[in-house]
Design a protein that fits this description.
- By secondary structure, this protein is an alpha+beta fold.
- Helices cover about 50% and strands about 15% of the residues.
- It has helices at about 20-45, 55-60, 75-90, 90-110, 115-125, 235-270, 280-310, 315-340, 350-365, 370-380; strands spanning about 130-135, 150-155, 155-170, 175-180, 185-195, 200, 215-225, 230-235, 270-275, 275.
- It has a 4-stranded mixed beta sheet. Strands 2-3-7-6 form a 4-stranded antiparallel beta sheet, covered by helices on one side. Strands 9-10 form a two-stranded antiparallel sheet.
- Helix 6 packs antiparallel against helix 7 (about 280-310), helix 8 runs antiparallel to helix 9 (about 350-365) and helix 8 (about 315-340) crosses helix 10.
- Bound molecules: 3-thiaglutaryl-CoA and flavin-adenine dinucleotide.
- The site of flavin-adenine dinucleotide (FAD) has 22 residues, from strand 1, strand 3, helix 9 and helix 10.
Length: about 375
């Protein structure tokens, strides 16, 4: 496969610090050397390449913005670039990293006690302990406020009952951040360690994110010590974590789009029809121009959002716009690449079909495209239109 050519039409590289460029280039090189050669077979076999976890840890990609505890303490831009480069390889691997960092390490860092932080974060940064995040339930996806998982007060511990569905990393996790309702019906967060006795069941036969583990978590009278409770009450707890992960997805999806665009440009220059490269046809050029302009816009959104995040002025609706726009954009680019590749685009000799199938999940998880549209609609009008 030819080396990846990253598109940077507006020379946004100029806006990056030398440290950010170095981090981006290290992750790009890791993905090219370690992931690209195996990803098609992982996707075909439905196998998560666990052997790459150590490499992600060495790159500082696990909990990259966390200060201390063996984490890299990087800028939001560096975090975004890491996600972009990983998802350039595969959305499933970016999912793994997002869940570990934004959805498990972040809540421990933000809402955990010193004991939680010292116990879990250093080993999680090294990839020695793997986490998952349980919010969604079989009957409550877009509306987690209806969750039925219950944490019943029982002295110095809770008794946890219920189930969580579609959980990334579920079967390979050593701990789960579980959101459940307490006796007062308020949402609480618990660090549920694997040896407390929760069960997992892998969700098989996916056509999307085949190189990622997706599972159901089952809690039947699981005893969780109260000392494992996070210090946050209500849905703002899980939503604060989602802000971090959705931000990473906005960058990650841009990476998928960049991979597809690169493939479309190089294929169109070499594929001959009617005695000419298909790149010479106006209609094909129009498609390439659409891709370039969409990716450039997404890159600008990411960079400005990173600045807001670093300044602490990013609001959830800023993040919603980036997640909604960039994933939808990436799906369009993956589909257009598939079209430009003709029949070749339906085989896994090329990347676009895998990215396209993966992005269907990415468009749904962490708030569907329409949920983000509704969040933005509420911001514009002041009127919630969820029900
Ligand atoms: P609502 O009444 O609006 O809010 C409840 C409380 O939460 C606060 N809040 C936020 N806080 C921080 N960040 C945000 N983004 C927040 N959004 C809301 C809000 O201020 C309120 O606080 P308080 O103090 O008043 O209690 O909540 P709602 O129940 O009406 O829900 C609104 C809605 C539909 C937008 C929300 O439920 C939603 O975002 N639904 C989508 C669900 C979702 O994204 N699930 C993701 C599951 S995890 C996942 O998909 C991982 S995939 C991982 C991978 O593989 O990469
Ligand atoms: P539903 O909520 O049933 O939505 C179905 C359709 O109805 C969508 O098109 C939606 O936009 C639309 N809809 C719903 N409500 C409205 C409304 N009010 N107005 C208009 N349209 C509406 N969850 C976790 O907790 N942890 C994880 O690690 C995790 N990993 C995942 C990994 C994968 C591969 C996938 C696919 C999902 C994962 N999820 C995870 C779950 C994910 O967050 C949910 O799938 C998502 O929130 C949507 O919920 P749902 O699938 O139940 O769809």
């Amino acid at each position: 496969m030819k080396p990846f050519q990253a598109v940077d039409f507006y020379n946004l590289d100029q806006q990056l610090s030398s440290e950010e460029k170095m981090i981006r280039d290290s992750v790009r090189s890791f993905i090219s050397k370690e992931l690209i050669p195996i990803i098609e077979s992982c996707h075909r076999d439905g196998r998560f390449p666990k052997e790459l976890i150590k490499g992600f840890a060495e790159l500082g990609a696990l909990g990259p913005t966390i200060q201390g505890y063996g984490c890299a303490g990087l800028s939001q831009t560096a975090y975004g670039l890491i996600m972009q480069e990983i998802e350039r390889g595969d959305s499933g691997l970016r999912s793994f990293v997002s869940v570990q960092g934004a959805l498990c390490m972040y809540p421990i860092y933000k809402f955990g006690t010193d004991e939680h932080k010292n116990k879990f974060l250093p080993e999680m940064a090294q990839g020695k302990l793997i986490g998952c995040f349980g919010l969604t339930e079989p009957d409550y996806g877009s509306n987690p406020s209806g969750m039925i998982t219950r944490a019943k007060d029982n002295g110095d511990h809770y008794i946890l009952n219920g189930s969580k569905m579609w959980i990334t990393n579920g079967c390979i996790s050593d701990l789960a951040i579980v959101w459940a309702k307490n006796d007062e019906g308020k949402v609480i967060g618990l660090i549920v360690e694997k040896d407390f006795g929760y069960k997992t069941k892998e969700i098989k036969n996916k056509f999307s994110l085949r190189a990622s583990v997706t599972s159901e978590l089952i809690f039947e009278d699981v005893k969780v010590p109260k000392k494992n409770q996070l210090n946050v009450l209500g849905l703002k707890g899980p939503f604060a974590c989602l802000n971090q992960a959705r931000y990473g997805i906005a960058w990650g999806a841009t990476g998928s789009a960049m991979a597809c665009y690169d493939e479309a440009v190089s294929y169109s220059k070499t594929r001959i029809q009617f005695d000419k490269p298909i790149a010479s046809f106006q209609l094909v050029q129009a498609k390439l121009v659409m891709m370039l302009s969409e990716i450039t816009r997404a890159q600008l959104v990411n960079l400005q959002l990173a600045r807001l995040m670093d300044a602490g002025t990013a609001e959830p609706y800023h993040i919603s716009l980036a997640k909604m726009n960039n994933v939808s954009m990436a799906l369009k680019i993956a589909r257009t690449t598939r079209d430009i590749l003709g029949a070749s685009g339906i085989t896994d000799e090329y990347q676009c079909g895998r990215h396209m199938a993966n992005l269907e999940s990415v468009n749904t998880y962490e708030g569907t495209e329409d949920i983000h549209r509704l969040i933005l609609g509420q911001h514009i009008t002041g009127i919630p239109a969820y029900s």
